[in-house]
Structures are given as structure tokens and as C-alpha cells.
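User: quick one
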Amino acid sequence: MADVSLPLSGRMNEFQLINRLKSLLPINDSVVVGAGDDCAVLAPPTAGQQQLFKTDAVVEGVHFTAETPGEKVGRKALARAVSDMAAMAGTPTSAVITLGLPAGFSPERVEAMYRGMAQFASQVGIALVGGETTRSPGALFLNVALLGTVPTGRAVLRSGAKVGDAVFVTGELGGSIEGHHLDFEPRLTEARWLAEHFDIHAMIDLSDGLAGDLQHILQASQVPGGEILAPALPIRHAARLRARSGDMAKPAVVAALTDGEDFELVLTVAPADAVRLLDGWKARFPETRLTCVGRLNNRPGLFLRDERGLKPLGHGFQHFD
Amino acid sequence: MADVSLPLSGRMNEFQLINRLKSLLPINDSVVVGAGDDCAVLAPPTAGQQQLFKTDAVVEGVHFTAETPGEKVGRKALARAVSDMAAMAGTPTSAVITLGLPAGFSPERVEAMYRGMAQFASQVGIALVGGETTRSPGALFLNVALLGTVPTGRAVLRSGAKVGDAVFVTGELGGSIEGHHLDFEPRLTEARWLAEHFDIHAMIDLSDGLAGDLQHILQASQVPGGEILAPALPIRHAARLRARSGDMAKPAVVAALTDGEDFELVLTVAPADAVRLLDGWKARFPETRLTCVGRLNNRPGLFLRDERGLKPLGHGFQHFD
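Assistant: Done. Structure below.
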């Protein structure tokens, strides 16, 4: 419940809007009491499960624009958090939403955002069990907190990578801003399959770009360095097109390494598992690429190898993690 | 992990700030993997417990100002969500934080907010297991998602009130803006004691004011109406002082009914339990008031009774819930 009255610009009053939004929220078997009380009440995970807990926000002007359709905004807000849960090889179960609304917001747009969230939630089996709304004097923001499960001890962390590991990425990289950042499918099924069938040492989802996010694995795993092979990078068509758009355009390889919001998985395995992994993947997910893009090693720092030799990566990626 | 680079105004770089913030975060026995991976990993609740799940945000210019000390902002953000969990008679266990930061934010202020959250979290036994940071083109916001437990089937809902119930409130009401909204102690211990020793029919925490929040109980419980006794209202000293501040000031009774952010509990019990409840409370919580302020009945609508008769309440309280 919000402690502030919201100025409604449209024909709906606040109670009508709230009731419409509530009617959109999907539930599942874990829900004892859903949206509408002080807190949601949920059944605990079944025996042999641990819990996963994650929060994430999208902000107008940063993660979407005033022109982005509301449905896609809502979908993206939820899908981003789901992608983080995929990176642990987990299963999302329920979410609560906080919406920060500027004066003069459109109730129709808010409803569209909820529709986008609800549709994606239904698709992946997530119950939406609470929605909080507040005024925001600045930009519209939408925060998603997500709860999920993972078999006890089977969460794939960032910290298990080893020197010598082969580095794989799912899908294709770069140019996400052309549309992928709104339409991506978090790699939930793929991640669980990977964790069930292989000894995945470390995994992370790509939100800051491969060059930055692989550094998080190195750091968490205390592995000194690694090498990415430029010709091996699976580059998204949109990144290639953008690279040809003018002299100032980012080269496609750089886009694949540094563009944000790919929401693909990066994972490392023992080199002895690499061939079996590629074969198994091709049989199970024939439509989706899985590419070995490099290897971890003892030489300090992350490097890119191309036809001209080795270049150091990993400077200028001072992101919050 | 955030997908945007944050412009730091101070001397610290982002990694230094993040490392300082991480070192502040309290943990507890439920934490398997805390802040720093894609998700937190948590032990499930012990047998016989259900889960509570809640989200809430504070926004600069709405819930606090640029002058509010950072520690108090952080404390308030967490304490608000804890108050909602108290209203279910639950126990909070872990929280994840989203921080939206405008350009030119002060890292020292961010650290102070985290200190305030961390100190309050330690005080009530909450682990802080994840922090996400994003840019916010508008106002600074701080979202808290909170997870907790409650013995199975023992969550006190808004929906159990009955015609004839006596209505009680803890503490005092009104004038919270003078300071209480930053310093309040959520009624966690009191709520659990109430639920353990009495058949509490319905409970809610006061964020919009008694007149508005009691309506939520009526609506959820499908009870037609109720009557609040004006002379019985426990009015906070700050509300009385404000009432004397000029001709335009809100009368103290109106402040007690409509000022937001009291974060006290409203609860209803069968009238036969009222005396035992008051006696038990006085013995257990001698420093804190518990006041019977009215009764639920069959007459549609919520009314205030004072020396001049009955006045209808409950118009003009069109808040989101």
C-alpha cells in the first residue's frame, strides 16, 4: 500500500486502476495469500531446495524510453531478474513489484506494463504476489524482486572457475539496443539443463558485456586471467549492421565484447568436458548457438587474441556489480 | 550488477564504494551465498514455517528530503517494510536493496544510507543479501524487498475481522512528519506476542492513517462499517503541537485519523477478548500504549463519534493499496 495519493491523468480512478491491475496478476501453487495484504504469504520450497533472491529495477531514460511500449517495459523488468536466476541454474517462483510514477502518468501505460509482466510471468510460471506504487518526482521506475528455488548445493556461482577452464557463451552478442534488450528470452531451461548434465564451474548472465562480466568470474574465482579469441565470438547480426553504419560506429568485435544487455550466459567448464558439452547442446538446443570463446589461464588480466596478437581488455569497465 | 556506469562525484571510485558497502552488510544463519553473485542463495525456512514477501520504496522528495541524514533514509526504507511484516505477525529474515542514483550523487551519502540500513538490519536480525545500483535521471530512490517467515497458518491477515469486533491501536497517532516517520520502531515483538496469545482477527500497519487503513480491513473482511470514538484516540504530542500552530493547522483528531506514516498496528478482536488483551498488554509492554478506539458494526461506512454525534469518514481516501 502506498502512503501517497497519485494524481491520475486519465479516466480511471485509482481504485479502478488497482482492481484492474490485481485482476491481471498470475498465481501458482506456492501462493497462500497473494497481492492485497501487508505481505504475500507463500508456501516454503519443497524439501531439498534452497532459495534464490534477487532485486532489479528499470528506469525510464536508462533502460527504456517514453516511446517503448508499456508491455515491453514490463516484460523487460521481469525478464532481467529472471536472467539472473537463470545464471544460478535456478527456477523463479514469485515476484513483487514496485512502481514509481511521475505526476501525469498514463494509467493505460501502467496497465500495459502490468500486462507485459503478467504475460511473461505466466509463460515462465512466476506468481506476481504484490505490487507497491509510489510517486516518483523524476523518472518512472519499475522494481522487481524475485524469489526462486534451486536444488540444495546446486546453485552455479561465479566463484567456481579454474585455471585452464574453457569459456562458453550462449546465443549471440552485441547490438542488443536494436531490439534484443526488450525481447530476449532468459536462458532458464538451458541453464538448468547445463547444471543437470555437466559440471559447470562458474556461470553469469551478460548484462555489462562479455569483457566486463567475465572479469566478475575471474575476480570471484581468484583466477588470474583469460584469453578471448576474437574470430570465435558469436556476433549478433544487429551488431554487424551497426558496425557498417559509419566511420564512428563501434567495430562488431568491440560491440560483442562491450555492449550491454545481451542476457546470454557465460560459463566455464573443465577443458575435458568441452566436446561432450558442445555435442550434447547441439542435440538438445539445435536452434541456439553455444560457442567456446576462450580459456582461463595464469597470466594476469583478460586479453583478446586476434590476427594481430594479444590486446589487454578489462580497463575502463568500472561498473557497479 | 548494474548495466550502467555511474558518474562518481567524490574521491572514491565505484569499486571502492561497492567494496565499502559490501563490508557493511550483516548476514545471518539463513545466508548460504550473500551479496556479490547473480542472486543470493538462502536456506529454506525451518519446518512449520511459511514465507512472507514484501517490497517497498522510498523516494527523495516524497518520503525524505535532500536534507534528511543518509542513515535515517536507509533506516526508514528498511523499517517501512519491516512494519508490514509486523502487521502479519511475521519475522523478517533477509532483504535485497535497489538504489537509484541521480548524476552527481554523493558516495558518502550512499554509504550513510547503507550504514543506516545495516545498523537497523543487525538490530532486528535481518541479513542484507544483495544490492543493485542503477542510474536514476530523476530522484534518488531506495527499494527494499524483504523476506520473512511466519508459523504455518498463523499469518494475521486483513481479512479476518468480524462485525462486533473491538478495534485497537498501538502507540500514538498523528504528526509523524515531525520525526516519528524516521525513528519509529516497527511493532515486531508486539505483533508476534499478540498473535501468540490472542485470537487477533485482523491486523494492518498504519501507513495512510487510521481512517484510510481501517477501511482496508473493512473491505478485505467484508464488514460493512465501524465507529471510531474521537475522545479515545491516542494522539501523539507532535500532532497536538501542530494543531496549535495556527488557524490553518489540522485539528489533532483529524491528524490522528489522516496523517500518514504512523507505522503503528491496528487490530481487531472479539469484544469478549478486549479486557484480557488490555491487561496482558499492560503487563508485557508497560511503556507502550494499546488503546481501544472503536468497534466494527453492520452500519455501512466508517464513522467518527464525538461530542456532537456521528460524522462519516472514508471519503477522499483514494489511495493505492
